[in-house]
Inverse folding.
């Protein structure tokens, strides 16, 4: 089926060397994924190449990377979808590189943790489940599927210029609990989002929305949070 | 040397639930995981988790006894009845706890946790979050670990993501801690602990056609196996009927629970033509459907290349979008097929390891201070075949039990921080081994040997087995172990050296694969997922017992233990 050229941005922490390296691999089957291409290199051409992977079915969020101009998951990106046999791969942006395509995710996780990412109900649990109507449950349907892959975080220009900006994934997480009928810490959550590094830093670039492999909509969550903050201020 | 009172290995649902249980008792705990906890394989579970809540209109008369009976019958009566009863009695409490912690369960019109029918279950008792239940549960429990870490009133809970455990340190009959490698740097570190819990998941990647994440190499079973703890019932490997053709991405049993049809190349719902699936049809247990699908394919009623169709079209667009959105996404992304308009090409694939680290109903092992839970463990609640929806349940129930027992053990222990010398010695041995592995100058990249193992296991230790094939597999594995002496790793650096990780884990995988083959070859009967074409009947007289496989440098050594009976009578397994 021909060849694919993969240009990979690499980093060797021992030599502190950053460089691009080009690999030509066979296009083995129609539905070959970028992840399979990376494995081909690692197992047949250069075993020093490092990248993260786990589920290979787009639910674990391990293999996010920058592929031909967009942050995507390597496991569900078919070469055929890229519509070219020249592919450039770089690690997730705006996070320190450890080696090759492996970045240090800790800044991303620290922001996740800052959002108090857990349900805060106002009362002790009842004996059975908390009742949530189908309609109330439908409210959170659009915000619970985040896999924390950081595609949005790395494609956001503000996370580059403002190192404390919470970023799209963390703000979406805040909205996930704001929208949950069982949560009663809405005031605290809005306060977190209303900080100098919260929602007001968003510049409406919408890269986060375009790059989300789960088709989530962080800008919509950001607008929802802004409304909540303003609504709160308008009330006496 | 680092010290935590309890160390949990594995950051999936069982491991995190265990860590919370430990910390709830104000005992310090660390979670070591090969990946960040949210990347654990739990995240891929789709269809749901069983609890007899009776929220479904047809589930009103469900209770824990019926759940227990279904589980025991599903296990082909190999499960220990007290263990199953323990699990099903706790089920409702664990699921309600997940709801209280924020798990976004799908809801009934009354606003209660929604439930759907699943294979081998008498009532619709599988609680679900659309078709991403594992994702929702794992994220919920991880969220709670963040809450625990942020709470000031307890001792610490620390996460060590991306650490590979290489060896346990055992002194006498007591576990002292372990040696692990930080993958980002390749640095080895010793971890001293009063108790260790292994919740490292299954060994799906012994097989090539697995639905499992690539991390499920079986290393977590190999480490205690090397330390003298037997692996139990390893020959029982579950093959899931519906994995996406060619890619083996899981297509949930929920798709059939919601009413999907399995169809052959004649357009027939062929399950009707088999005595064991004729009545239950698409919601017969997994072992039965996988066998009948294999028969269809080998007898020429499959589609070209060897697959069948899972047809969801009659469910309609609305139901597919509401109940099975993840399945639709998988089909669109990986196969370019929209199940609203086209049937899904499916084939059976390796899915679950029923066997595992031998432990009691309280998750204790024969080494003091060492506990096991989740898919890595064999309590045993799944016996010869696991029912869908029982694995997530097992992780929650036994994760908590393991955490409770480990914490209690620590709290009553008088002599603490023992075994530093044993740990240092283990470290030195491991460092030696890593240097040797890195300096090997043979021919092959270790992944080639791994691939050969996966092919061999699919071919000879799959859905149908026979003595001849199993003997060949056993010899084949010995040859592969020989080939391991002749590997080559070009990259000598320690940071993110993934060839080194493959080589270290391959040694574990091969030993665990040997345990699977040894158990399968010895067990001259067919029970649950273990189908011997040369011994096609269940043989309770001789084989109603658990296989215990011990590691020896010469190869696996087998012993057997009795299946613990209980209130449920052993009967023929008919659906």
């Amino acid at each position: 089926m021909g060849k694919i050229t993969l240009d990979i941005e690499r980093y060797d922490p021992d030599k502190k060397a950053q460089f691009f390296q080009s690999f030509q691999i066979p296009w083995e089957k129609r539905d070959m994924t970028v992840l399979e291409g990376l494995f081909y290199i690692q197992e047949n051409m250069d075993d020093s190449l490092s990248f993260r992977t786990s589920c290979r079915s787009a639910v674990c969020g391990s293999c996010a990377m920058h592929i031909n101009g967009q942050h995507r998951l390597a496991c569900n990106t078919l070469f055929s979808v890229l519509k070219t046999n020249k592919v450039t791969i770089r690690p997730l942006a705006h996070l320190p590189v450890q080696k090759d395509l492996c970045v240090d995710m800790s800044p991303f996780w620290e922001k996740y943790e800052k959002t108090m990412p857990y349900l805060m109900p106002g009362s002790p649990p009842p004996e059975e489940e908390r009742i949530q109507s189908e309609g109330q449950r439908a409210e959170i349907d659009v915000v619970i599927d985040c896999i924390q892959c950081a595609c949005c975080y790395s494609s956001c220009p503000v996370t580059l210029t403002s190192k404390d900006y919470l970023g799209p994934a963390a703000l979406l997480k805040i909205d996930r609990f704001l929208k949950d009928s069982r949560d009663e810490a809405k005031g605290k959550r809005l306060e977190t989002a209303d900080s100098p590094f919260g929602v007001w830093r968003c510049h409406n670039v919408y890269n986060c929305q375009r790059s989300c492999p789960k088709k989530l909509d962080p800008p919509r969550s950001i607008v929802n949070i802004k409304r909540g903050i303003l609504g709160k201020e308008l009330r006496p | 040397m680092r010290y935590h009172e309890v160390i949990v290995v594995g950051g999936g649902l069982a491991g995190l639930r265990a860590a919370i249980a430990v910390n709830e008792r104000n005992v310090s705990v660390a979670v070591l995981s090969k990946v960040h906890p949210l990347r654990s394989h739990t995240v891929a579970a789709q269809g749901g988790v069983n609890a007899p809540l009776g929220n479904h209109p047809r589930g009103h008369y469900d209770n824990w006894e019926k759940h227990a009976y279904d589980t025991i019958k599903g296990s082909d009566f190999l499960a220990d009845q007290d263990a199953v009863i323990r699990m099903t009695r706790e089920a409702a409490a664990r699921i309600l706890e997940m709801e209280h912690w924020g798990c976004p369960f799908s809801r009934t019109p009354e606003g209660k946790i929604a439930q759907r029918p699943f294979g081998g279950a008498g009532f619709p008792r599988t609680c679900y979050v659309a078709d991403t239940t594992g994702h929702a549960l794992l994220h919920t429990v991880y969220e709670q670990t963040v809450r625990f870490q942020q709470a000031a009133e307890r001792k610490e809970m620390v996460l060590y993501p991306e650490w590979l455990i290489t060896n346990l340190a055992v002194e006498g009959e007591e576990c002292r801690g372990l040696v692990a490698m930080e993958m980002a740097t390749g640095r080895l570190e010793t971890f001293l602990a009063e108790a260790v819990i292994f919740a490292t998941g299954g060994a799906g990647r012994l097989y090539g056609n697995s639905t499992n994440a690539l991390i499920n190499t079986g290393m977590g079973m190999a480490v205690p196996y090397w330390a003298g703890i037997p692996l139990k019932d390893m020959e029982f490997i579950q093959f899931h009927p519906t994995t996406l053709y060619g890619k083996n991405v899981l297509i949930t049993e929920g798709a059939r629970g919601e009413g999907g049809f399995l169809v052959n190349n004649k357009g027939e719902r062929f399950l009707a033509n088999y005595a064991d699936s004729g009545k239950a049809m698409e919601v017969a247990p997994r072992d039965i459907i996988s066998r009948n699908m294999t028969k269809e394919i080998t007898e020429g009623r499959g589609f070209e290349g060897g697959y069948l169709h899972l047809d969801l079209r009659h469910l309609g667009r609305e139901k597919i979008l509401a109940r099975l959105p993840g399945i639709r996404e998988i089909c669109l992304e990986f196969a370019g097929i929209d199940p609203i308009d086209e049937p899904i090409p499916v084939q059976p694939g390796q899915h679950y390891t029923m066997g595992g680290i031998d432990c009691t109903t309280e998750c204790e092992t024969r080494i003091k201070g060492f506990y096991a839970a989740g898919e890595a463990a064999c309590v045993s609640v799944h016996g010869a075949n696991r029912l869908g929806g029982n694995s997530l349940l097992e992780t929650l129930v036994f994760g908590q039990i393991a955490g409770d027992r480990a914490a209690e053990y620590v709290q009553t222990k008088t002599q603490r921080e023992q075994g530093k010398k044993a740990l240092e010695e283990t470290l030195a041995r491991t460092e030696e081994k890593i240097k040797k592995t890195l300096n090997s100058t043979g021919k092959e990249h270790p992944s080639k040997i791994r691939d050969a193992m996966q092919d061999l296991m699919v071919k000879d230790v799959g859905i149908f087995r026979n003595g001849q094939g199993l003997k060949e597999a056993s010899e084949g594995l010995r040859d592969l172990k020989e080939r391991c002496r002749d590997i080559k790793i070009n990259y000598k650096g320690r940071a993110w050296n993934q060839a080194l990780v493959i080589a270290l884990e391959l040694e574990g995988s091969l030993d665990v694969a040997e345990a699977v083959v040894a158990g399968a070859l010895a067990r001259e009967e067919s029970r649950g997922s273990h189908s011997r074409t040369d011994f096609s009947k269940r043989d309770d007289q001789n084989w109603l017992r658990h296989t215990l496989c011990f590691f020896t440098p010469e190869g696996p050594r087998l012993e057997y233990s009795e299946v613990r009976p209980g209130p449920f009578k052993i009967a023929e397994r008919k659906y």
Summary: Chain B has 15 helices and 21 strands. Chain B touches chain A through 63 residues (CB under 8 Å). The first helix of chain B runs from residue 13 to 24. The radius of gyration of chain B is 23 Å.
